């Protein structure tokens, strides 16, 4: 699978999985702006944004939900290896 296809699938799966999280620090609408994967698909950097959210709290909550999110990816995306997820503030990455 090409990196662009993987990134599109990861974006889709993560968007729906994050929406299902029941953590008070995760707002109802979290946008997965983009996902970049390393050439070996071992690491996926996930850039998120949310209107009016406390980003450090949100990133911490997503980090704590990493295991659940990676399980969702492995269940829905056919890859040899599920990438480790790292979460970043999309607004800071544009600077």
Automatic annotation (TrEMBL):
<dbReference type="GO" id="GO:0043024">
    <property type="term" value="F:ribosomal small subunit binding"/>
</dbReference>
<dbReference type="Pfam" id="PF02033">
    <property type="entry name" value="RBFA"/>
</dbReference>
<comment type="similarity">
    <text>Belongs to the RbfA family.</text>
</comment>
<dbReference type="GO" id="GO:0030490">
    <property type="term" value="P:maturation of SSU-rRNA"/>
</dbReference>
<dbReference type="InterPro" id="IPR015946">
    <property type="entry name" value="KH_dom-like_a/b"/>
</dbReference>
<comment type="subunit">
    <text>Monomer. Binds 30S ribosomal subunits, but not 50S ribosomal subunits or 70S ribosomes.</text>
</comment>
<keyword id="KW-0963">Cytoplasm</keyword>
<protein>
    <recommendedName>
        <fullName>Ribosome-binding factor A</fullName>
    </recommendedName>
</protein>
<dbReference type="InterPro" id="IPR023799">
    <property type="entry name" value="RbfA_dom_sf"/>
</dbReference>
<comment type="function">
    <text>One of several proteins that assist in the late maturation steps of the functional core of the 30S ribosomal subunit. Associates with free 30S ribosomal subunits (but not with 30S subunits that are part of 70S ribosomes or polysomes). Required for efficient processing of 16S rRNA. May interact with the 5'-terminal helix region of 16S rRNA.</text>
</comment>
<dbReference type="InterPro" id="IPR000238">
    <property type="entry name" value="RbfA"/>
</dbReference>
<keyword id="KW-0690">Ribosome biogenesis</keyword>
<dbReference type="GO" id="GO:0005829">
    <property type="term" value="C:cytosol"/>
</dbReference>
């Amino acid at each position: 699978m090409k990196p662009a296809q993987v990134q599109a699938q990861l974006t889709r799966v993560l968007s729906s999985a994050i929406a299902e999280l029941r953590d008070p620090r995760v707002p109802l609408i979290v946008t997965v702006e983009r996902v970049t994967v390393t050439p070996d698909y071992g690491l996926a950097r996930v850039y998120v944004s949310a209107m009016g959210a406390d980003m450090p709290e949100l990133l911490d909550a997503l980090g704590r939900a990493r295991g659940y999110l990676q399980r969702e990816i492995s269940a829905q995306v056919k890859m040899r290896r599920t990438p480790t997820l790292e979460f970043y503030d999309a607004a800071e990455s544009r600077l």
